[in-house]
Amino acid sequence: MDGGLRLDLEDPIRTTHLLVASLIASSVACGDTSAPAEAWTVRDSAGVTIVHSYRPDWTDANRWWISPTPVAVLGREDRAVERFHNVTAAALTASGTLVVANSGSGELRSFDSAGNFLWSVGAEGDGPGEFRWIASVRPYRGDSIFAYDDRLGRGSFFGLNGGLGRTMSFLQSEEGRPEDVFPLPDGRFIVQYSGPTSARTVDAEGLVVNPTTFRVWSTSGVPDERLLFSAPGDELYLLPPRPGTTYVRFQIPIFGQRAVGAVRGTELVTRLGDSFDLAVVATDGQLAQVLRVAHVRRAISPSEVDSTYAALAGASYEGVPIYPLPYPEFAPAFGSILVGGQGAVWVSEYSQRGEGATRWFVIHPDGGYLGAVSLPIASEVLAIGDSTVVAKIVDAVGLERVVLWKLNRPDSSD
Exposure check for the chain: N or C terminus, fewer CB within 10 A? Predict the structure, then answer.
């Protein structure tokens, strides 16, 4: 047997993972561990572009930054359209219109770039134009808006003024439940699934890793026969059943990895493993890029664990009180992924669920690491445009506000 990479033609997902592992291993073997003069290097390996970033490319003269004073703050209690409850998503259209998903009322609410109210649509329910839980809202072809309800497994299409156009069902399959749906420029979709449960792995301590899989769907709602990609997903702990029952119970671990995904143009961006490695996958399933950023993972201290559990005192997950579980030596390399204006990929530093991050790492459309952008306050970033960052802030008494910050880009003509 030769020492080359053997491809499994019956299992294209496994083949892709073997290829990724081979590429990463070869990048280390080829001497990529020593930083060159450039901020990042680009090379081809087996038809895949590997971009290895060693340090930020920005200087003080061209780095991006966010103005500390918001452009607009939405959340005044004296205005019903700004009373938010369970804001779960937001989208910025090409014309600068903001659409906020307020899942607490099953509504989409639209505002102009200065924060002035334009329209609202939707209600709680199962009927056309109604929602149970709005997992995401994104621009669709032209000036349309696409909103996905993951509890109903349904996408709804709205015009720029909020008129309902049509709906489309995304039903559970052998891959699991459709967790999110990303529209593509040509009208197709990339659907992200949480599963399948049959592919879960469980270690000796009960840590469960759910795979997250992706599949392309046609404009008419027909899924492709072949999976697009499979990546590591959410981590859960398998708990022993209550006495006298066989009911399987889970708990979300602190410092656990999460399923992440985003779409950049016609390409899927997702994580590869525990390091700061991203996969960029074309819609035909071909691995187009591997983006690697030199990153020192943060060690987790016992005092940090104690304070985290203290903050969770009295909390529960699916009715099971949260109690201490084993935790990793290091925090995950990053949290979530978003795609901003002009195809820049934004990757957040890791934070506990519900806390929000304060720093985001920005990757050039070509794949090189540009640098970090700090937010004025820890918050959940919902959308990023060419010159606007939209985030949700929750105050000490639980009031939600949607904040629009100006993104300053010295390299832009805006």
Answer: N
Element (H, E) at 230: strand 229-239
- Mind listing the pLDDT tens digit for each residue in 356-390? 778 999 999 999 999 999 999 989 999 999 999 99
CA atoms within 13 A on the CB side of 375: 25
User: Which pLDDT value is given to residue 15?
Assistant: 47
Nearest partner of 19 among 52, 39, 49, 40, judged by Cα: 49
Question: Phi and psi at residue 7, in whole multiples of 5°?
Answer: -90, 140
**Measured between alpha carbons, how far is residue 308 from residues 213, 300, 351, 355 in Å?**
30, 11, 11, 11
Which position has the token pair 């607009």? 72
Token pair listed for 181: 């749906």
| Banded pLDDT at 260 (limits 50, 70, 90) | very high
Residues in the chain: 414
For residue 88, which of 176, 177, 182, 180 has the smallest C-alpha distance? 180
Instruction: Report the C-alpha gap between 379 and 232 in whole angstroms.
Output: 25
What is the structure's pLDDT at 312?
A: 75
Between 360 and 232, whose confidence is greater?
A: 360
SS (H, E, C) 314-358: CCEECCEECCCCCCCCECCCCCCEEECHHHCEEEECCCCCCCCEE
DSSP-assigned beta bridge partners for residue 190: 182, 216
Out of 13-22, 233-242, 292-301, the most confident range is: 292-301
End-to-end CA distance of the chain: 58
Q: Is the dihedral of CA 73, 75, 77, 82 positive or negative?
A: positive
User: Which of 131, 128, 111, 112 lies closest to 120 in space, CA to CA?
Assistant: 111
Please return the burial class of 59, using the count of CB atoms within 10 Å of its CB with bins 0-12, 13-18 and 19+: exposed
Strand, coil or helix: what is 28? helix
CA 314 to chain centre: 28
Give the count of beta carbons closer than 10 Å to the beta carbon of residue 344: 18
Element (H, E) at 19: helix 12-29
| Residue 60 per-residue DSSP state | T
Q: d(Cα 15, Cα 20) in Å, to the nearest integer?
A: 9
HSE-CB at 52 with a 13 A cutoff on CA atoms is: 20
